Amino acid sequence: MINRRTVTAPPGPRGHFLFGSLPELSQDWLGTIGQALHTYGPIVRFRMPWPLGALVIVTDPRAIEQIFVQDVACFRKSKFQRMVAPVLGEGLVLAEGAQWRRQRRLVQPAFHRDRIAEYGKDIVCAAEAMVAAWSEQEVRDVYADAAQFSLHVAATTMFGAQLGERAAQVCDALAEAVAAFNTYFNARVPLPLWVPTPAARRMRHASHKLQAVVSEFIGARRRSGEDQGDLLGMLLQARDEAGMPLTDLQLRDEAVTLFVAGAETTAVALAWTLYLLARHPEVAAQARAEIAAVAGGSVRSEHVRSLRYTSNIIRESMRLYPPAWITGREAIRDCTIGSFAIPTGTQVLACPYWMHRDPRYFPDPERFSPERWTDELSERLPRFAYFPFAGGQRMCIGHQFAMMELVIAVGTV
Question: What does pLDDT average to over the chain?
Answer without folding.
Answer: 87
